[in-house]
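FORM 12-B: Structure-to-Sequence Request
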């Protein structure tokens, strides 16, 4: 009796470079989105004692490359990096961010996706020009540099708001003390205030991967009538596309509804 062979299926191997100094939920979130098995390895970008100064961020390329090489040696088919500022503030231009991503891909011998480039690709895919920016936990210097970066992108920016400017927190020290732990209520309140300040905006762009949007993006988009681009959802979208994985839950925002296997 002839035995029928089972269809071959290779489990994708994803490597994740987490930002220093926090427990990154990207692996857990992406696993929950997939309708198939996926192997995930994660490492934290060095060096020890990373202080998030602009000087360190601007010199981060060899540290990302080291982390990516470790994940490649572990067998990763795709490597993603969490935290868009590491691409935004490397050269402060979209072209510079894309160039950094290509250098890392070439150095590792497999595709590397930078969080900041995933955001750029999401903006391009949604094809909206008039935008309102929300960078809730950024301080004035981070906000200024975020704006400098986005000036290299073909957008009409109607404004940019932070938690403190919106009066949701009394001081930046109070924001920093949260260490990226904000409730969904606080996040939604900030994004709603930003949207209300720019009723003609065609899209809301949110800065920073420390705010997580999977559970709230669909409701906000329905409420606003325009797409929301957040760093976390943009990275999940780019990862699913690169791995040819369909996200079957169609209630996670406009971007994730577009993932379909080729």
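FORM 12-B RESPONSE
SEQUENCE OUT:
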């Amino acid at each position: 009796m002839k035995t029928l062979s089972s269809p071959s299926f290779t489990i994708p191997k994803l490597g994740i470079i987490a930002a220093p100094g926090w427990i990154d939920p990207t692996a857990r979130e992406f696993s929950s989105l997939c309708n198939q098995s996926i192997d995930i390895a994660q490492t934290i970008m060095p060096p020890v004692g990373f202080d998030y100064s602009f000087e360190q961020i601007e010199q981060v390329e060899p540290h990302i490359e080291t982390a990516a090489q470790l994940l490649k040696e572990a067998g990763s088919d795709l490597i993603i990096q969490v935290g868009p500022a590491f691409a935004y503030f490397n050269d402060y231009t979209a072209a510079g961010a894309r160039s950094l991503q290509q250098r890392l891909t070439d150095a590792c011998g497999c595709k590397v996706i930078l969080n900041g480039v995933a955001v750029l690709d999401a903006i391009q895919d949604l094809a909206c020009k008039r935008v309102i920016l929300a960078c809730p936990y950024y301080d004035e210097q981070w906000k200024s540099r975020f704006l400098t970066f986005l000036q290299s992108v073909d957008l009409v920016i109607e404004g940019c708001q932070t938690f403190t400017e919106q009066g949701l927190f009394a001081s930046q020290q109070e924001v920093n003390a949260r260490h990226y732990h904000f409730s969904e209520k606080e996040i939604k309140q900030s994004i709603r205030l930003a949207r209300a300040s720019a009723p003609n905006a065609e899209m809301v762009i949110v800065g920073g991967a420390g705010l997580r949007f999977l559970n709230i993006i669909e409701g906000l988009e329905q409420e606003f009538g325009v797409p929301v681009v957040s760093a976390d959802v943009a990275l999940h979208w780019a990862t699913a596309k690169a791995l040819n994985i369909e996200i079957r839950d169609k209630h996670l925002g406009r971007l994730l509804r577009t993932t379909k296997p080729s």
